[in-house]
């Protein structure tokens, strides 16, 4: 906190002017990542992160479009990413960057995620009142489950560095996201909860819990460094593979040349990419919680839907085409919306 009561008048005026001009500076001192960061830097870094996502996704799209890869390859890459690469990334990040003494209330992160999840459900049902009945279920499901992990990983790595403990906080925050996604998605489609015992042993959930346990009880010191290094290198494959899969799946869906429902899509994009994050920003401004938890809640509200939504909807014989269009256009529009929302959010810190 800056004390001004003893400062000369011209210094007080100078401070006020600077504060007015640069009020959208992120208070990243609280995060201990940067001393200061300008609005343009925030915009550029978040834009670069989104362009990386778009570029890798387009590469996957192009590989299938030019027939360099067959559709069957995606079925092979998907389990490699989910079963091995992503858990390896989480393991190495937690072992290297998690400091239990600095994040003593780590258990609160998944609790806050659950609260924000419930709030997201309420908002989703409210906005679904303005949607046609034939696409209401797909609309709700696409709003309730954002891309909780993969896009935030790229954004956080770009803004705060690959070794930031914010990544660890993200893993803790979204710990139960896979559990809710794969067990509760049916609730929003046909009002049925489909419990799958296998999801309780999801590699991402298991590896997160095990890694946190190892760090809390200081057992990680017995892990050989070469194993951590191997894990880190395997984990580095996760984001490129997943984005290739995303691009490939988008190509497969759009290869069917379905009619684009522009009215439904525009409304969804406005709600998901603009209204959702703005509502969260306003509410978070009045809530007294840790700034990093505010940031994670905001990030969940601003990112596009999780890429598994069209697949899950197709599995239930629903309108996966509109769900895929929701995903695609929300993803593309995020090139503009995410950097802008970052600017607005940081102005409230």
Whole-number count of domains: 1
Radius of gyration, in Å, reads 21 Å
User: SSE order, as H and E?
Assistant: HHHHHHHHHHHHHHHH
Largest sheet: none
> Based on CA inertia axes, which overall geometry fits?
globular
Regions with pLDDT < 50 over 5+ consecutive residues?
Answer: 1-35
Question: How many strands in all?
Answer: 0
CATH class: Mainly Alpha
Helix content: 55-70%
- The percent range for strand residues is under 5%
Alpha plus pi helix count: 16
Derived from helix and strand composition plus strand pairing, the structural class reads mainly alpha
Task: Summarize model confidence as the mean pLDDT.
Answer: 83
What is the CA-CA span between the terminal residues? Answer: 14 Å
Compact summary:
This protein has helices at residues 9-21, 39-65, 71-97, 108-127, 136-144, 150-160, 165-173, 177-184, 187-190, 203-216, 225-235, 238-254, 262-284, 291-302, 309-315, 320-346.
Describe what you observe in this structure.
The chain has a single domain, classed as Na+/H+ antiporter like fold (Up-down Bundle), CATH 1.20.1530. The protein contains 16 helices and no strands. Helix 2 (39-65) crosses helix 12 (238-254), helix 4 (108-127) crosses helix 7 (165-173) and helix 15 runs antiparallel to helix 16 (320-346). It has 349 residues and is mainly α. Helix content is 68%, strand content 0%.
């Amino acid at each position: 906190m800056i004390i001004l009561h003893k400062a000369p008048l011209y210094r007080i005026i100078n401070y006020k002017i600077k504060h007015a001009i640069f009020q959208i500076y992120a208070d990243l001192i609280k995060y201990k990542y940067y001393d200061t960061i300008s609005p343009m830097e925030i915009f550029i870094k978040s834009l670069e992160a989104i362009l990386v996502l778009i570029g890798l996704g387009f590469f996957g799209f192009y590989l299938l479009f030019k027939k360099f890869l067959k559709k069957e390859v995606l079925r092979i890459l998907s389990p490699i990413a989910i079963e091995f690469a992503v858990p390896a990334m989480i393991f190495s990040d937690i072992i290297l960057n998690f400091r239990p003494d600095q994040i003593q209330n780590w258990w609160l992160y998944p609790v806050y995620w659950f609260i924000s999840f419930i709030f997201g459900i309420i908002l989703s049902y409210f906005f679904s009142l303005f949607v046609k009945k034939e696409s209401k279920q797909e609309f709700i499901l696409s709003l309730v489950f954002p891309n909780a992990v993969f896009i935030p990983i790229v954004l956080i790595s770009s803004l705060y560095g690959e070794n930031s403990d914010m990544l660890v906080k993200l893993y803790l925050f979204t710990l139960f996201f896979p559990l809710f996604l794969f067990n509760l998605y049916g609730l929003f489609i046909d009002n049925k909860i489909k419990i799958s015992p296998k999801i309780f042993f999801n590699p991402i959930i298991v590896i997160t819990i095990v890694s946190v346990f190892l760090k809390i009880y200081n057992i990680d010191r017995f892990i050989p460094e070469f194993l951590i290094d191997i894990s880190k290198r395997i984990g580095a494959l996760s984001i490129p593979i997943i984005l290739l899969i995303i691009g490939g799946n988008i190509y497969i869906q759009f290869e069917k040349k379905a009619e684009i429902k522009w009215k439904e899509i525009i409304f969804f994009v406005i709600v998901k990419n603009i209204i959702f994050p703005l509502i969260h920003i306003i509410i978070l401004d009045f809530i007294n919680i840790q700034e990093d938890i505010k940031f994670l809640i905001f990030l969940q509200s601003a990112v596009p839907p999780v890429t598994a939504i069209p697949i899950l909807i197709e599995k239930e014989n629903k309108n996966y085409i509109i769900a895929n269009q929701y995903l695609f256009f929300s993803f593309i529009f995020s090139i503009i919306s995410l950097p802008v929302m970052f600017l607005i959010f940081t102005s409230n810190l």
